[in-house]
């Protein structure tokens, strides 16, 4: 199946009546673009319009693909865009360049239009990723038209870059000018922050790759989005570990902006209740958390953790009751029922969501998506057989959800494999023999037996050298296999 996109024409912006810029929903099969599709939500209106214009140029020139040249034409169509203004400062006449490009491309255009809508060219997909890199280099979350222009110039061999090179426009020179221009802009006020060690941004963990998407809890995630749309707080009812994993997937939904427009841009923060309660200034620190959450735009979502700790904090309950903050709490059905009886008015502001237990197949998918966490933490590799074994053995864990038991088993097996690699059995045997030799030599010295001492010393010297060689020799990264899982399960009585 080929990757296509199409955009409806004639839509109007509800704010000013201007043509509505294309959004991800205007591009059919957007999910098929993989990582490229995830960038659409970061595009400014002008950047998105450039892609809609590029698609129109591809149709006009009867091209089966949308290329970087079409994107350049799409940029030139909007003379209000910053990219076009920079080109004009460089001495480029947008209308003249557009006319020259159209005339040249028309000469090589097919005689008949393609039977299917145009598809992405690999060169254009690469341009999109380069534009994202340019935005990241400027520490900007939004991808603007000027980032697209820099992406077009990144590869001096592509036709769009060659058109601009006729005007002496090169990537490195324009990049220096853009960075200088951005540096001269007035600095913004310092954004509000949470107290150190009290809260961390789960949506940032998504950006760093620590949280990967898995198709679990679709029903629960839908209910969570609807609750946020209704302005309700959320109570996740079920196993603690599963609730944490569901919160991580909610962070992924927020970070990727796979949400209605009114929820886009919101971030999910985990509030460390244990660290907060341990602070001598916990009341002041909690007040700072509430103040920071109120100052952030759009309003963040705070995962407060266990219901028990925050329900006793009067000013936190007041902030929740007055909707000064938006919160998610983790508890079980029994504790939630007790809370609802004790504080019915506050409980009415929450949407309780019961967490379903993943199937064996879903649990395996989660392990596959996140095994890199354990590989990075323990500096080893994890085989597919180990994941399958973890699911199989976790099924025998009493009174624990399958995914929770499998994660705990895999983590314990990683620690076991790391220890085994650091001191394998052969090394431990050598160390034990060397320790015994040292004790025997001490006994010979005490009784004055110098006849047998040299032989023991020679043997100890050989063993010590073997140990030293072992410790200094490069060793391959250990690999966790099914055997490690089974050995660990036996230790844990699974």
UniProtKB/TrEMBL annotation:
One example GO MF annotation: ATP hydrolysis activity
Gene Ontology CC terms: cytoplasm
Keyword Protease recorded: yes
One Pfam family linked to the record: AAA_lid_9
Highest taxon, organism lineage: Bacteria
InterPro entries, per database record: Clp_N_dom_sf, Clp_R_N, ClpA/ClpB_AAA_lid, ClpA_ClpB, P-loop_NTPase
Keyword Nucleotide-binding: yes
Domain Clp R: 40-184
Annotated segments matching region Disordered: 1-22
Keywords: ATP-binding, Hydrolase, Nucleotide-binding, Protease, Repeat
Gene Ontology terms: biological process: cellular response to heat; proteolysis
Protein name: ATP-dependent Clp protease ATP-binding subunit ClpC
């Amino acid at each position: 199946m080929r990757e296509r996109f199409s955009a409806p024409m004639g839509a109007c912006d509800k704010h000013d009546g201007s043509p509505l810029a294309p959004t991800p929903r205007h591009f059919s099969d957007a999910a098929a673009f993989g990582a490229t599709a995830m960038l659409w939500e970061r595009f400014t209106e002008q950047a998105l319009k450039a892609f809609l214009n590029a698609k129109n140029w591809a149709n006009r020139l009867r091209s089966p693909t949308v290329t970087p040249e079409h994107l350049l034409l799409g940029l030139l169509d909007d003379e209000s865009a910053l990219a076009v203004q920079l080109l004009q400062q460089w001495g480029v006449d947008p209308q003249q360049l557009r006319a020259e490009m159209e005339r040249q491309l028309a000469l090589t255009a097919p005689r008949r239009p393609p039977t299917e809508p145009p598809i992405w060219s690999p060169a254009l997909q690469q341009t999109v990723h380069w534009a994202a890199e340019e935005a990241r280099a400027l520490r900007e979350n939004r991808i603007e038209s000027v980032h697209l222009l820099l992406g077009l110039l990144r590869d001096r061999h592509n036709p769009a870059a060659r058109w601009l090179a006729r005007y002496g426009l090169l990537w490195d020179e324009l990049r220096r000018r853009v960075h200088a221009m951005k540096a001269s802009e007035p600095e913004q006020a310092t954004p509000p922050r949470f107290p150190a060690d009290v809260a961390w941004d789960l949506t940032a963990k998504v950006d760093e790759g620590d949280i990967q998407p898995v198709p679990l809890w679709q029903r629960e995630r839908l209910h969570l989005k609807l609750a946020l749309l209704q302005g309700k707080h959320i109570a996740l009812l079920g196993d603690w570990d599963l609730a944490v994993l569901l919160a991580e997937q909610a962070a992924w939904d927020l970070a990727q902006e796979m949400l209605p427009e009114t929820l886009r841009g919101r971030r999910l923060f985990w509030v460390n209740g244990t660290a907060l309660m341990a602070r001598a200034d916990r009341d002041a620190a909690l007040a700072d958390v509430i103040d920071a959450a109120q100052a952030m735009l759009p309003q963040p979502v705070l995962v407060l953790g266990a219901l028990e700790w925050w329900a006793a904090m009067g000013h936190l309950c007041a902030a929740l009751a007055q909707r000064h903050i938006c919160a998610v709490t983790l508890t079980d059905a029994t504790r939630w029922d007790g809370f609802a009886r004790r504080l019915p008015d506050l409980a009415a502001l929450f949407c309780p969501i019961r967490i379903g237990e993943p199937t064996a197949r879903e649990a395996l998918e989660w392990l596959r998506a996140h095994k890199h966490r354990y590989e990075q933490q323990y500096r080893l590799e994890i085989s597919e057989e180990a994941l399958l074994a973890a699911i199989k053995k976790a099924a025998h864990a009493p009174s624990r959800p399958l995914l929770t038991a499998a994660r705990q088993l895999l983590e314990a097996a990683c620690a076991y494999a790391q220890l085994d690699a650091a001191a394998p059995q052969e090394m431990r045997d050598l160390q034990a023999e060397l320790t015994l030799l040292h004790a025997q030599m001490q006994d010979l010295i005490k009784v004055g037996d110098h006849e047998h001492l040299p032989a023991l010393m020679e043997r100890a010297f050989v063993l010590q050298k073997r140990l030293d060689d072992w410790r200094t020799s490069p060793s391959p990264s250990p690999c966790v296999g099914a055997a490690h899982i089974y050995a660990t399960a036996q230790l844990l009585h699974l």
